[in-house]
């Protein structure tokens, strides 16, 4: 087969790759999209559904006052200042425009929820299948696009001028190559399914479940590495707390009852953490408990906060699936979940007394999540307990890029022709993760990568489209 030429080649068809593809077709450039698996979507399809945007119509309808500045500040606070500020500011600059662009392209947002790391409710809920399919259909129906499934990218190569232009991939057992005249965009997701990379970079997460897109084994990180890319944020790899141990990805198994007021205890029935902090930080503490065993414990008043159909807060559904124990008394619950009864009663009594006084003397909990909401006592039967563990869902560490999504070498110089967007980018989140910012960053930087790559051929369309 003769080698084909495109303006842009996109590796991976998740949120980042598909937003890049739609942005590219809106600018009338020829695009090749290569997806390794036999279906599109990657981890984006499995995701918990939240995208972090500020100052939106949905927030206004709910009377939520928010601003880009607050969003940027929250990202920097949660990242403990270790984030690359220019990337966070680029997110701020393009977030509202990208939210509106997604709506214009047909992506539906249903509701706003309070989620981890935000000072106001800012988790904008999508239905991942609807979003991914809509973006795919838009891109794929354009005659400038060639879309290949089962196309596994193996290697990139620079031309004689040192620009990354050539992409080698394997499809149906045969090797192919194609040329990208204006840019190669790596959007192939993280490495939450790579035992080798997780063991190398995050041995502390050995006890965590592995959940994520099948193809998310870090190929893009290796592709960029080979071209001289610098890497960022590997020391900050963390799991996410809130999964039932039976979790495998597609099946509903996540419940963040602690952000609605549940406490978290270990096998000795003792609290060990402030439950309002990031679920990543809770995850680190949870893995340190005896045998990694922990439970969320709550009462009927908190159960009433269940949100039907929500990815994180549909506790009734988890009860129906048999993943939650229910009991008429705390003593009965202790027996059902096999923790010491006396210790559980003492833990609840101390917590309730502290909540009533307004001071959590043990761990300083004063909110439900981040700065939002007020803790309540656990006192109204029936009572509930869910065995809960940590999952490695998304890696959020990897390729260094600048605010134009250009891949950087160790001296902060762009590697010509090479761009990256989505989960495999490092430097954005810093030391902590704020819910919704991964899908958000995938969409925002997927679009930015295309706009940067094509600026030499189509300058008038840059950064002005809605
Ligand atoms: C259970 C779960 C819940 C989550 N909840 C949220 C949430 O609520 N909010 C949020 O912001 N984030 C959430 N995340 C994280 C978020 O979903 C991901 O970080 C994000 O979707 C990544 O998007 P992406 O486009 O970078 O990668 P992906 O969506 O993973 O897409 C990458 C694609 O590249 C393909 N690929 C890989 N290697 C190659 C190769 N060599 N050649 C060709 N193609 C390749 C993969 O097969 C895949 O289809 C969650 C993740 C999981 C697993």
From TrEMBL:
Cofactor(s) this protein cannot do without: FAD
GO MF annotations in UniProt: FMN binding; steroid dehydrogenase activity, acting on the CH-CH group of donors
Matches recorded under InterPro entries: FAD-dep_OxRdtase_2_FAD-bd, FAD-oxidoreductase_2, FAD/NAD-bd_sf, Flavocytochrome_c, Succ_DH/fumarate_Rdtase_cat_sf
GO biological process: steroid metabolic process
The organism's place on the tree of life at top rank: Bacteria
Domain FAD-dependent oxidoreductase 2 FAD-binding: 8-439
Keyword Oxidoreductase: yes
Pfam families xref list: FAD_binding_2
Keyword Signal attributed: no
Keywords: FAD, Flavoprotein, Oxidoreductase
Entry-linked PANTHER family: 3-OXOSTEROID 1-DEHYDROGENASE, FUMARATE REDUCTASE
Family under the similarity heading: Belongs to the FAD-dependent oxidoreductase 2 family. FRD/SDH subfamily.
NCBIfam families, alphabetized: flavo_cyto_c
Protein name as catalogued: Fumarate reductase flavoprotein subunit
């Amino acid at each position: 087969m003769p080698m084909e030429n495109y303006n842009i080649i996109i590796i991976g068809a998740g949120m980042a790759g598909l937003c890049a593809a739609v942005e590219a077709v809106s600018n009338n450039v020829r695009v090749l999209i290569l997806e390794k698996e036999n279906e599109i979507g990657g981890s984006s399809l499995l995701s918990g559904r939240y995208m972090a945007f500020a100052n939106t119509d949905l927030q206004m309808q709910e009377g939520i006052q928010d601003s880009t500045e607050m969003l940027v500040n929250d990202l920097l606070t949660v990242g403990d200042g270790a984030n690359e500020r220019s990337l966070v500011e680029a997110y701020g600059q393009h977030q509202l425009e990208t939210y509106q662009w997604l709506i214009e392209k047909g992506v539906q947002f249903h509701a706003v929820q309070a989620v981890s790391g935000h000072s106001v409710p800012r988790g904008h809920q999508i239905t991942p299948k609807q979003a991914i399919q809509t973006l795919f259909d838009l891109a794929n129906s354009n005659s400038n696009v060639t879309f290949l499934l089962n196309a596994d990218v193996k290697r990139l190569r620079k031309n004689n001028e040192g620009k990354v232009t050539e992409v080698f991939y394997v499809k149906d057992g045969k090797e192919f190559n194609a040329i990208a005249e204006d840019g190669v965009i790596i959007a192939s997701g993280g490495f939450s399914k790579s035992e080798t990379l997780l063991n190398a970079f995050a041995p502390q997460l050995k006890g965590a479940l592995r959940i994520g897109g099948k193809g998310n084994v870090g190929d893009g990180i290796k592709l960029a590495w080979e071209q001289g890319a610098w890497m960022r944020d590997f020391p900050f790899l963390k799991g996410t707390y809130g999964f039932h141990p039976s979790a495998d990805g597609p099946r509903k198994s996540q419940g963040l009852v602690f952000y609605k007021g549940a406490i978290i205890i270990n096998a000795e029935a003792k609290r060990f953490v402030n439950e309002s902090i990031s679920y990543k930080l809770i995850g680190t503490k949870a893995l340190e408990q005896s045998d990694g065993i922990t439970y969320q414990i709550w009462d009927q008043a908190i159960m009433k906060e269940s949100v039907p159909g929500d990815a994180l807060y549909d506790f009734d559904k988890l009860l129906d699936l048999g993943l939650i124990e229910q009991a008429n008394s705390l003593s009965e619950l202790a027996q059902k979940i096999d923790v010491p009864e006396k210790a559980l009663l003492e833990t609840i009594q101390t917590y309730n007394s502290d909540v009533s006084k307004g001071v959590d003397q043990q761990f300083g909990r004063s909110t439900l999540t981040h700065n939002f909401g007020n803790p309540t006592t656990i006192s109204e039967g029936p009572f509930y307990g869910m065995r809960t563990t940590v999952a490695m869902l998304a890696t959020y560490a990897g390729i260094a890029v600048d605010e134009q999504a250009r891949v950087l070498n160790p001296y902060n110089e762009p590697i010509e022709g090479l761009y990256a967007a989505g989960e495999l980018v490092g430097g954005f989140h810093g030391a902590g993760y704020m819910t919704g910012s991964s899908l958000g960053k995938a969409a925002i930087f997927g679009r930015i990568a295309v706009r940067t790559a094509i600026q030499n051929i189509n300058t008038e369309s840059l950064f002005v489209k809605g």
